[in-house]
Amino acid sequence: MERPRGRDASRAGDPLFPARHAPRCAGLDELDGLVARCRACPRLVAWREEVARVKRAAFQDQEYWGRPVPGFGPADAPLAVVGLAPAAHGANRTGRMFTGDTAGDFLFAALYEVGLASQPTSRHTGDGLTLGGVRLTAPVHCAPPANRPAADERDACRPWLSAELRLLAPSLRAVVALGGFGWQALLPAIRGSGRPLPRPWPAFGHGAHAVLPAGEGFPYPLHLLGSYHPSRRNTFTGRLTRPMLVGVLRRAAELADLPGGR
C-alpha cells in the first residue's frame, strides 16, 4: 500500500487534518484524494493496517486497500446513501464503499432492483459496476474495530461528510441514512455543510422522512429518509428485508426525480 511520505505524512496524521482540508476542497475528486490519505485517528489507522497485513484466510492472495475509503458515485448525484463505516474485510479490502461484504451485497441488489446500479453485485473495483444518480458514502471512512467507531473518531471524520454534502448540493435532493448511527452522524454533518436543521432534530426510524428547506447555496429542499442498516444481524433476523430497503430507496429515487422512483 502506498502511504503519504515526509511532510505529507505528518500533515495527514494531524488530528485536525480533515477539519483543515475538507472545507477548502473545490471538487469531489480533490476531496476523495485527501480522504484516502487521512491518518487523523491513530486507533483506526492501526486497526485498518493490521487487518490489511494479517488478512482473512479467504483473501490471503489479495492486496488489501487498508486506507480510508472515499465515497463512490457521480459528482452530480441527486441522491446520496450514507452508511456507517467500511467493513474490515469489505471496503477496507477492496477500496470501494460497500464493496466485498454481505451488507454491500444486500444494498447493491436493492439498488439494482430500483434501477440505480448497473448490476446487482459489487465484488471489486474492476467489476464494471456503475451507479446512476446515487453516491454512496459514510460518516466514518476507516474500518473500526468491532465495527464501532468511537465518538471522537466520528467527530474527527465529520468534516469530510460535510464537505461532500456541500459539493453535492447543486444536485442533491435526497439522502438515505442507513441505521441509527448513520442518521445521528448525518444530521450534524448536514449542519456543517451550511444547511440549517429544524428543532428538534428529526428522529430516526425505518421509513422516517424529514424535509429540510432550500436556501442560499442549496437550490433544492433536501429529503432525509431513514432505513435500518443492511447489517448481517438485521438481514439474517428479518428486521430488514429486501422489500423494505427497496421501498425506501424507491421512495428516495422518486423524491430525487430519478427514473427508479417512477
Write the topology of this structure.
Blueprint: H1 6-12, H2 17-21, H3 28-37, H4 42-54, E1 79-82, H5 91-94, H6 102-114, E2 134-137, H7 151-168, E3 174-178, H8 179-192, E4 209-212, E5 222-227, H9 232-237, H10 242-255
Parallel strand pairs: 1-2, 1-3, 3-5
Antiparallel strand pairs: 4-5
Helix pairs in contact: 6-10, 7-8
Characterise this structure.
About 40% of the residues lie in helices and about 10% in strands. It has about 260 residues and is of the alpha/beta class. About 50% of the residues are buried.
Mean pLDDT: 93
Q: Tell how many strands the DSSP assignment holds.
A: 5
Provide the low-confidence segments as ranges. 1-10
Shape: globular
Separation, N- and C-terminal Cα atoms:
43 Å
User: What is the topology, as strand order, of the major beta sheet?
Assistant: 2-1-3-5-4
Largest sheet: 5 strands, mixed
Percentage of residues in helical conformation: 25-40%
As a whole number of angstroms, the C-alpha radius of gyration is 17 Å
Structural class: alpha/beta
Into which percentage range does the β-strand content fall?
5-15%
H-E string = HHHHEHHEHEHEEHH
Provide a count of the helices: 10
